[in-house]
Amino acid sequence: MLLYFKPGACSLSIRIVLMELDLPFESVEVDTQAGLTLDGADYRTINPKGYVPALQIEPGFVLTENPVILQYLADLRPQAGLAPTAGMLERVRLQEWLNFTSSELHKAFAPWFSGRTFEEGEQSRAETNLARRIDDVERGLSDGRPFVLGQSFTVADAYLFVVLNWTGFIGFDLARWPTVAAYVARVAQRPVVRAALVAEGLLQLEAAQ
Question: Which of 28, 60, 157, 199 is deepest in the core (most CB within 10 A)?
Answer without folding.
Answer: 157
